[in-house]
Design a protein that fits this description.
Elements lengths: L25 E6 L1 H12 L3 E4 L8 H12 L9 E4 L2 E4 L11 H19 L4 E6 L3 E5 L5 E2 L10 E5 L2 H18 L4 E6 L9 H19 L4 E2 L2 H9 L14 H15 L2 H18 L8 H21 L4 H11 L4
Length: 332
């Protein structure tokens, strides 16, 4: 934009990071629902990412507990579960792990624990997205819970965590990470999603604690990605939010993804992403005359490109090959 033309908004300018993220590296993302939006974009781009092995985690203590459990994996037992509304729940996990069978809950929790423990021990980058400084403690034991699973409010105490205790707990667990995987780089983000159940003012105070804590942790050499600033300060408009007026829209996530790519991907990685995207678009394409020879030739061309990407870069194009192979005939 010409400098003489008014921008009418504060535009965030991406700054390249010294951290380079490439295909073939192992990545992990832990945190709020916003982390899932970006994590899914990384997965769609064929990056090797383990996304929220416990489900969504919102407060820093749940995040820290999850990282610690992955680094020192102790399997979950039946005694760790709570029964409510016909289902067994883990206070460490999202409701997706809940089930009416104890065995199935434990199998799911422990399978993800084993899988993700291996990833965090060897991953190159760990993204941590913090959502709120408010924590819920189960009154029966005083433990911090990640999800209340619709148990009565009277079963929990809620409190705002100050920045100093957040820093202390995260430093403690990141020191363990450094011992297990000294090569891992940690990148913090603060979720732009507002947590309004306790009030708007309370949300603002909560975010302030998170920013203060992250600012202190950056002195330890960790990275920071400005997802919050991109949505709240740059886009800054309800048209970039979903219908609930709280969560960012897919368009907003696209914008954040663009800046993340500019910050962490080199030219080669961005070119590879473009090539992957072209094959994915071809695989999703549904023409009016799918049975025609022209479409079979089209799919055959991109099926070959998918195979070439797998051979040259080791990215998993199996789903794209399946879809294209169905159109070509004879499989992938």
């Amino acid at each position: 934009m010409d400098q003489s033309t008014p921008a009418y908004r504060t535009v965030y300018k991406s700054k390249p990071s010294d951290l380079r993220i490439r295909h073939g590296q192992k990545l992990m993302s832990i945190g709020s629902c916003f982390s899932e939006g970006i994590g899914k974009r990384l997965a769609e781009g064929k990056f090797q990412i383990d996304l929220n092995p416990f489900g969504q985690q919102y407060n820093p203590f749940s995040v820290a507990n999850a990282i610690e459990r992955l680094l020192q994996p102790v399997p979950y037992k039946a005694a760790d579960l709570q029964f409510h509304n016909g289902l067994y729940h883990s206070f460490d996990h999202h409701g997706d792990f809940s089930h009416d069978s104890v065995a199935k809950v434990l199998d799911h929790c422990n399978a993800r624990l084993a899988e993700a423990s291996g990833v965090i021990a060897s991953c190159s980058v760990l993204f941590i997205t913090l959502g709120t400084a408010h924590v819920f403690r189960w009154r029966k034991t005083g433990r911090v819970v990640s999800n209340c699973h619709q148990l009565p409010n009277t079963d929990f105490d809620v409190a705002l965590s100050g920045a100093p205790v957040i820093v202390e707990r995260l430093r403690e667990v990141l020191a363990i990470l450094r011992q297990v995987n000294p090569a891992c780089r940690v990148v913090f983000t603060v979720s732009p999603v507002r947590y309004l159940a306790l009030g708007m003012f309370e949300n603002s105070v909560s975010k302030a604690q998170l920013f203060t804590a992250v600012h202190a942790l950056l002195a330890d050499g960790h990275g920071y990605f400005p997802a919050y600033e991109l949505v709240v300060d740059d886009l800054r408009d309800y048209r970039f939010y979903a219908n609930d007026m709280v969560h960012p829209s897919s368009q907003a996530i696209d914008y954040v993804w663009h800046h993340l790519a500019a910050a962490y991907f080199d030219a080669g990685t961005q070119t590879l992403l473009q090539r992957i995207g072209e094959v994915q678009a071809a695989a999703r394409h549904r023409p009016r005359h799918a049975e025609g020879e022209a479409h079979r030739v089209f799919c055959g061309k991109f099926l070959q490109k998918a195979r070439q990407l797998e051979e040259a870069y080791g990215v998993d194009m199996s789903e794209e090959k399946r879809l294209l192979g169905e159109s070509v005939g004879g499989g992938c």
